[in-house]
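Translate sequence into structure tokens.
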Amino acid sequence: MSEHEAITVGGGPEQVGLSFLTAAYGVREEVDRSMLSAAGLSLSRTKVLQVLAARGALHQAQLADALGQAPRSVTQMVAGLERIGLVARAEDADDRRRKTVSLTDQGRTTLAAAEQAGTHTLRRLFGSLDSQQLTSLRALLAHLDAALER
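Result follows.
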């Protein structure tokens, strides 16, 4: 019996919850590794590029809000992405303290490679489930999402 199975066999909600968190962390780490290997991007950096691709150029504060992160954390990520040419920052014409962040062409290309690697990894992992298991998992996750909103 694996360590993961030992946690969930006969466990109550808290043990199942811990098992879920362990599995979710493992999935995130696997996706992160695949993105780093294919495109040199972590999942968190990929999310920054995804927001910019979807919404266009944003002020750093807007980007932080969209990501649900502290502005200082986003500023550091953006600086790193700028250093490697994936985003560009420009001063705001009305307020020179504000920076507008935009995705570069290289950023779009790198984002596409990262997303492809992430998609491949998720298909590999969740493709190991049969259609009934996927349907059940989808329903369980929807139920958890609803519980979080209460």
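Note: The chain is about 70% helix and 10% strand.
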